[in-house]
Amino acid sequence: MTNTNLHDTSRLNTQKLPAAQKSRREFFKKSAAISVSAVAALSVLDPVKVLADDKAITHHAPWGQHWGDPITKNLYGVPSLYEHNVTRRYTKLLASGNYRAAIAVSPIQDIEGIITPNGLFFSRSHGGTAHIDPNKFRLMIHGLVKKPIVLTLKQLKRYPSVTRTHFLECPANGGQEWRATQYNSLQFAKGFMSCAQWTGVYIKTILKDLGLKPQAKWMLSEGSDNSEMGRTVPIDKVLDDAMIVWGQNGEALRPEQGYPVRLLLPGWEGNLCVKWLKRLEFASEPWYAKEETSKYTALKPTGKAVQHFYANEVNSTVTSPSPEIPWTDLKDGDLIEIEGLAWSGMGTITAVDLSFDGGKNFKKAKLKGLVLPKCWTRWSYMHKYKKGKTLLLTSRAMDDAGYIQPTIDQETSVMGVESVYHRNAIETWEVAKTGEVNHVQIRS
Ligand SMILES: Nc1nc2c(c(=O)[nH]1)N[C@H]1C(S)=C(S)[C@@H](COP(=O)(O)O)O[C@H]1N2
Ligand SMILES: [Mo]
């Protein structure tokens, strides 16, 4: 059902997002009179004259001339009306005809900081979104443990919990672009990932209670959804940082993320993080489940395929500018912040370099805010815009496991172009003379 050929361009739905982004920019243009004077001291924007009788300030705005909404209106809060274009988007890529096996990509160009709001979290399911009554939920943990059990949700939550911030990425993120660029869009090209603060219990905590037998080397995790997703996890990862999670950014997991409970293997392929979890079984041998034989393997030019590659490698992207956030409204000499994300499933981001010439020369970007292991790291670089000059913006991240992103040539020389998964080569946005931003690939 999900055996979609990622390189079949006729199946790609290359929706562009001009309408959405245009209305957002119009909104900012309109509000410029209010916001500009506040930041003028930084001289990022042209100073606007401060007028003592600025009507936007001295007069009651239309929205201030009547009562606001009653507090009873939105008991579960929703974003501002003006943010209605900031949504996940779906594509024919990886989709069955009825969009039950499908992917919704996250608008990573619009995300602030390192947390993806739950309503914007990317979602990939092979059999649709299941809706599970938490009172009917059961989790069985059995196999090579001294005390096999079946837990209710309440019982599971009695184990001491932890809260950790980690990204989750489908290993097919960017996988449609091994041969050439397909999407002139950050959301579609790189939005198969998100980052959240997860709450749950370390599996090692539960195993202390149940007693793991020494012959146990592998763990099967199985979902209760229509796809019955099953994947095998090596015991080292289970005993390191594997979690069973029920909390996502301060509330219960969303149905699309596996409510009430999913497996989280920080930094590892999204596919291994089984949603709607129902069973963990310990054994001395791996299972060779469907999703680790027919898929989630990578065919190399040698004719051999890589199986079991677990961690998502060090990666990065420029998020602003991007095709969705062009520089068409900038004037010569404007100071502008270039921002992006970096992440590694193998550790913590140590540095991000930024190139303006497609990867020939690099400058150091600044890491912004919290820098956490196996987590999105936001980075920034202040740039003085030169109108009429074409730029090739390329970012390159490094992690504390000692890895650095390869060039496209370096990566394809080892992996060929048939391996849908684990693409982490450096990527380039071309900023055209007009300020439009296009996705390009630099090869030697
Ligand atoms: N039970 C179950 N777990 C699943 C899947 C599924 O279809 N069923 N999809 C997997 C895939 S391919 C990915 S990339 C991640 C996506 O997680 P998300 O939907 O929370 O973003 O969940 C994984 N876990
Ligand atoms: Mo996936």
Shape by Cα distribution: globular
Secondary-structure-based class equals alpha+beta
Task: Assign the CATH superfamily of the largest domain.
Answer: Oxidoreductase, molybdopterin-binding domain
* Low-confidence parts: 1-41
Mean pLDDT equals 90
| Proportion of residues in β-strands | 25-35%
Measured as a percent range, the helix fraction is 10-25%
- Would you count the extended β strands for me? 24
How many domains?
2
Q: Quote the distance from N terminus to C terminus.
A: 37 Å
> How many helices does DSSP assign?
7
CATH-level-2 architecture of the largest domain: Alpha-Beta Complex
Q: Numbering strands along the chain, what is their spatial order in the largest sheet?
A: 5-4-13-8-9
CATH top-level class of the largest domain? Alpha Beta
- Summarize the biggest pleated sheet: 5 strands, mixed
CATH topology of the largest domain: Sulfite Oxidase, Chain A, domain 2
Bound molecules: ligand MTE, molybdenum atom
Q: Output the radius of gyration.
A: 24 Å
